[in-house]
Amino acid sequence: MRILSLLLVLFFCGVACQNKHDHKGKTPLVEVDGQFLYREDLQRVLPGGLSKEDSLLFAEHYIRNWVEDVLLYDQAKRNIPDNVEVVKLVENYRRALITHAYQQELIAQRLEKEIPETDVAAYYEKNKALFKLERPLIKGLFIKVPLKSPQLNSVRRWYKDESREAVEHLEKYSLQNAVRYEYFYDKWVLADDLVDMLPLRSTESDLFLSKNRHIELKDSAYCYFLNVTEFRSVGEEKPYELAHGEIKELLINQRQVDFMKEVRGELYQKAIKRKKVIYNY
Q1: Which residues pair with 130 in a beta bridge?
Q2: What would the pLDDT profile of 5-42 be if each residue is shown by its tens digit?
Q3: What one-character-per-residue DSSP string does 189-215 give?
Q4: pTM value?
Q5: Radius of gyration of the chain (CA)
Q6: Nearest CA-CA partner of 247 in 99, 145, 127
Q7: Domain spans of the chain?
């Protein structure tokens, strides 16, 4: 009943509003003291993938909120007339929006977006102390197999060997026997993720992983083999490949700041030459 009522209100309101005002091709849904909410406005905010029932429910809530916002704003204007402070805040906000939009347009048109890789690498080398790990990282290889798996002695030999041949043996073996196989010689992963796969207490894991390179553990059901090729503890330098994105973003922001400082300086110097700036002190 509520949804049917909404549809009837929207239909009759749309017809009545169209008869009285020029809406420039838009379809009005609701009018409040000469202000209109249009069907096109509603369609723009309507989430996709909703059922007909949910779409109507969303429309009902959206329209109700819009009406309440208009009424509240009108009430506020009547109770705070000609407030100089509000007018000043609005003007300042408008100036900030326009200035920001102009700056973004200038940056898009005139500033190179790409940061040379050499600049990123140079910044990292000069500022390694700024990039510290908050969680330990590890590189290596891990395989988990049932306790009674075949060729366990071969697995013990292969997992310690970083050669391509040994890795291929493990990969083939893991297809038929491994419960879990992870190859990460070529990338850093969170040590915590590896600890979750091992029968270790988390309180001892960092020290254990940092001091042991070839780790063999077992419980009542499985054997665990972990070859640690590199380990970095909390507080150590963040690897370059992980700091890369952070550095690039930082350099882009710095370049934008420097660019806008230059633009502002040029505008100031031109204004001084044209005597548009007059100091009275």
Answers
A1: none
A2: 554 455 445 545 455 667 677 888 888 888 888 989 88
A3: EEHHHHHTTTT--HHHHHHHHHH-SEE
A4: 0.65
A5: 33
A6: 127
A7: 2-80, 133-232
Angle at 251 between CA 246 and CA 254, to 5 degrees: 125
As a whole number of angstroms, the distance between CA 145 and CA 181 comes to 9
147 within 8 A of 223, measured Cβ to Cβ:
yes
Question: In whole angstroms, what is the distance from residue 70 CA to residue 32 CA?
Answer: 7
Which residues are within 8 A (CB) of 195 and not within 5 positions of it... i.e. 6 or more apart? 202, 205, 209
- Looking at residue 49, its pLDDT comes to 85
Q: CB under 8 Å to 26, separation ≥6 — which residues?
A: 36, 38, 39, 40
On the CB side of 66, CA atoms within 13 Å amount to 19
Distances (CA, A) of 108 to 96, 120, 160: 18, 21, 51
Over the stretch 215-231, which tens digit does the pLDDT of each residue have?
999 999 999 999 999 99
Q: Are 160 and 175 in contact (CB under 8 A)?
A: no
Q: What is the pLDDT of residues 98-122, one digit of tens each?
A: 999 999 999 988 887 789 999 999 9
Tokens (6 digits) for 233: 């503890």
Residues with Cβ within 8 Å of residue 232, at least 6 apart in sequence: 133, 136, 137, 138, 188, 239
CB 268 within 8 A of CB 144: no
* Burial classification of residue 276, based on how many CB atoms lie within 10 Å of its CB (0-12 exposed, 13-18 middle, 19 or more buried): exposed
**pLDDT-based confidence at residue 237 (cuts at 50, 70, 90):** very high
Q: How confident is the model at residue 4 (pLDDT cuts 50, 70, 90)?
A: very low
Query: Which residue has 């779409």 as its token pair?
Result: 55
